[in-house]
Amino acid sequence: MVAGTKPKLRSIIAGAFTLVATLAVSASEPLPPWQQKLEQSAFSGTVLIAKSDTLIFQQSFGLADRENQRAFDNTTVFDIGSLTKQFTATAVMQLVEQGKLSLTATIDNYLADVPADKKQITIHHLLSNSSGLPTNPPSISFYDVIDSESYTRQVLQLPLVAAPGERYHYSNLGYYLLAQLIEMASGQNWEAYIQQHILLPAGLTATGYRLADIPQHRLAINYGADPNWLQRGFRLRAKSRSVGDSLQHLRQQPGKRWFEGAGGFVSTAQDMQAWYLAMQAGQILTAASWQLMFTPHIAENTEKGSYYGYGWAIDKQHGFNRINHTGSNGYSYATFDYYPEVGLFIFTASNDIDNYPYPLFTEIKQSVLETVVAKDLAEP
């Protein structure tokens, strides 16, 4: 791990924060232990915690752009990676509600020239990561431009890692195919459909991929320490460097990418909070469709009690049911945690996955859950 922004610099550039009700402290009282640790860590990004429509905590840390000394703040737009999948899954469920797609239909009802070993793959399998398709394509770079028609044929020719429905296997390629099915069923570009029917109705104005229309100065720059062959050979620590913002590749070379439907979206903490509130209120989809989205369809890890629904992972954390997902482009990192039993939402995003403090955020989630539950029990 490389060292990130130094604590004394972070104290200067840290964004404003809000503490209310459950976690409030006066100026004379010490900060909660987890907040002190977060202030002193190398974390670069933003944290938002809310209970229903009440904001509990929000603070930004570190630099969104080190070269220009631009701090993270409430308007910073960052990559949410595979959180994109929940929007793709929601769009599919809308089209299922409209009778334009069927969860039990096999993909050869929609796609041409499906090989025999894939004729049993259903839309349910694609949504629940149980299609047996590989995770990622071989021999293609992350931002390479593709032709959808020929690339779909290539995906369908790849060997399966398991029989359809046999077991869980995370597949970005499966969600690429879902994006193609959205376009076939709706007659719209997959992202245009999501923007029109999901994002804007839910109040998300800074979320999307090529249609998000985000000013470049609001985008976080991503950083990573990629060792070269010499550093790997001698086990030398590489220096963290800029790899650009998450939409830079589109400005440099417009065109389709293989991960569309599986990733690519950027967003803000405020938009993610709006999405959580829409989910909690049962908007956008029918109650039956939301239930299917959050159903533990297939086991990810039986020992840890982790399952996959449609675009969501479902498990228990600290004794509470959790609907969650993470997302990354290899440099950024975002987490979305929703605890429906207590109405709690915890969102984090970082532009430096190398310095993301995983154990600390586990501690934070446990502490916040305990505080919220204690407050609920204390109320008449």
Automatic annotation (TrEMBL):
InterPro entries named among the record's database cross-references: AmpC-like, Beta-lactam-related, Beta-lactam/transpept-like
Q: Which UniProt keywords apply?
A: Signal
**Record bears the keyword Signal:** yes
Q: Which residues form the Beta-lactamase-related domain?
A: 41-352
* Pfam families with a match to the protein in the record: Beta-lactamase
In its keyword annotation, does this UniProt entry include Transit peptide?
no
- Give start-end of the signal peptide: 1-27
The UniProt entry, under SUPFAM superfamilies, shows: beta-lactamase/transpeptidase-like (SSF56601)
Alphabetized Gene3D superfamilies for the sequence: DD-peptidase/beta-lactamase superfamily
Name used for this protein in its record? Beta-lactamase
- Source organism per UniProt: Alishewanella aestuarii B11
Its lineage opens with:
Bacteria, Pseudomonadati, Pseudomonadota, Gammaproteobacteria, Alteromonadales
